[in-house]
Amino acid sequence: MKLITRIAFSCLFLLPLASCVQNNQPANQPAATTTGTPSAGGAAKRFAFVTNNASDFWTIARRGTEKADTEFADVTVEFKIPADGTAAEQKRLVDDLLAKGVDGIAISPVDPNNQTQMINDVAKQAIVFTQDSDAPQSDRIAYVGTDNVAAGRQAGDLIKEAVPEGGKIMLFVGKSDARNAAERTQGIRESLQGSNIEIIDVRTDDTDRVRAKSNVADTLVKYTDVKALVGLWSYNGPAIVNAVREGGKVGQVKIIAFDEEDETLAGVKDGSIYATVVQQPYEFGYQAIKLMSQYANGDRSGIPAGKQVFVPTLVIKREGIEEFQNKINGLRGRS
């Protein structure tokens, strides 16, 4: 059995307020974060956190990197967002970071299978962690993020709750070959085994929000008997709920989403979305930078044998939405 490390629920959910960083300011721009200062006698380690798209999901992860940047005196952090969510744009950002001499990069690879060689090349020059989406065949040191198969099982259980009578469902995601997407789909399929629920297909949109919504609209027209729509990436929830509203199907078609975009949470609150499976991106940012800092200083104790540091997911339904919104807005720097 592979050994893994599971991060306990972050201070957002379980720990006393005093254990949370209290003075972080909201971060609304993708510029570098550089609040850390070198410790006496040593140069600051320069780390970068590279996302896979420009979703609001990453605003919360950025707050986690800022906490680490502030907490570790010998660390400075750059937070990078690919403009178009492509592997090519990620490579350009990574090449620029290497040219600037960064010591480590935590990346969420858009296309892990085809980016393995790139990650291996980067690993020859800097510490490399993956976060959010893994590339386990690469030379990355470790992965920090969600156990996406387990998260998929959670979503599958929610689907069975939402449509106990069974029926047809459709899944939506940016890229089906991204590892987190593939593993969430796997988990959903595992959960639905033996049920009367049929997955029609997995529709992709290449992180294009307009296309994401049109995929849903097309599904509602083509499959009038569809019972549930499931969004696997953060922006898929808003795309689904907006298309369902425009199609006059609210209440007739159940929606299960991932993550905590504003429109997704609003949909959970008004009942148009049955539930959302939320990750803890704040911990993605904090733990990735913390572990890279430890690794750079020769401390390997935080890296488990399985090289996977899992951050638990949570299920948010209507009855718990207000408390969750208050906490998540605090992380986003909103009153």
Q: Any overview of this molecule?
A:
The protein is of the alpha/beta class. The chain is built from ten helices and 13 strands. The protein has helices at 57-71, 87-99, 112-123, 148-162, 179-192, 209-222, 236-246, 262-270, 281-296, 321-331, and strands at 5-6, 45-50, 75-80, 104-107, 127-131, 143-145, 167-173, 197-204, 226-231, 254-258, 275-278, 308-310, 314-316. The strands form two sheets. Strands 1-12-6-5-4-2-3 form a seven-stranded parallel β-sheet, with helices on both faces. The protein has a six-stranded mixed β-sheet with strand order 8-7-9-10-11-13, sandwiched between helices. Helix 5 links the parallel strand 7 and strand 8. The longest helix has 16 residues, at 281-296. Mean pLDDT is 88; it is low at 1-5 and 8-41.
Short description:
This protein has 335 residues and is of the alpha/beta class. Helices cover 39% and strands 19% of the residues.
